[in-house]
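Hello Y.,

Per our agreement to keep a running log of every chain we model this quarter, I'm adding this entry. I've kept the format consistent with earlier entries: sequence first, then predicted structure.
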Amino acid sequence: MNNFVYYNPTRIVFGKGTIAELGKLVPTNARVLMTYGGGSIKRNGVYEQVKVALAGRTLVEFGGIQPNPLYETLMEAVAVAKQERIDFLLPVGGGSVLDGTKFIAAAARFQGGDPWQILTGASVTVALPIGAVLTLPATGSESNGFAVISRKSTQEKLAFGSEATYPQFAVLDPQTTFSLPAKQVRNGIVDAFAHVMEQYATYPANAALQDRQAEAILLTLIEEGPRTLASMNDYDARANFMWAATQALNGLIGMGVPQDWSTHMIGHEVTAFYGLDHAETLAIVMPQVLRHQRERKAAKLRQFAQRVWNIGGGDLVEAGVSRMEQFFHSIGMPTRLSDYGISAADAAKKISERFAARNVRHGEHGDLDAQAVKEILLKC
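Predicted structure for the entry above:
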């Protein structure tokens, strides 16, 4: 196991009726900017619960944060935060709202010129404090310091991370997820699954506990994911799914082990160029990354097949990847670019050229270059 430092300051407040706890969690004298997406929180009752919990506080609203949060929109929110002298941010929604709000928090305090530099390598050491009310389990953004932001004008999708942008607290009430469309639930299951695989399907590091924890999350998603889709008001299934998605990316299973993240990096470019949902890109790219890297990932992929899918023999690497694809299909998730009318050749050309221009390499070995990305996408 590699050396590591584990840090996670986010207080998780989990369970039925926990939005009412906001009155204790948000500072009494705070000037709060509540951020949200397309307005579903006003239809499912979450908005009213938040308003009641924060009655008496200064509360400013900013809605309209997109599923792939746009820099252009978020800069409008930064202007509001500065104008209204906001000193606390409260995203209410899914991972995109949380990611977008992390950028708002960093950009509102950024002193280095164009805040887009936050996405291109500028250090973020200060940010406005953030809480969170999660209504869509998927990204794990409620208990980490990472965010992914898109820029429409340049067709880019980039990430940043900072200890300054960890939420101070996250309220997770599984009941808030009952009204989610099946597509969003499906996306969340795949997103969480991919997060685990990026930290697990690498090479052995003698990290027995982390392996078992990762496998436990995968098995929970495999068991509880279909239950959430079959019965949208099954509280227990929703609770297990919600907690699994948080555990998938709160940093714990990634401690002391190599991590990949090449699927995410390639998937971000598919979203940037073609507008697919984040999870949709992961379901397309991940199987082909694993196949492309099967020799280097063989030991962990065999373990994945045996421990997660209970496969006993044959080509364990291919069998495990195939079962993963079958699972995605079983919950209604396509796994090919052609399912969305996208040419694999076109995607391979555009995205490999972008990787070449940036001169970057990804993967746990740092060996996935532009040519490898092209080969992977041609198989997608």
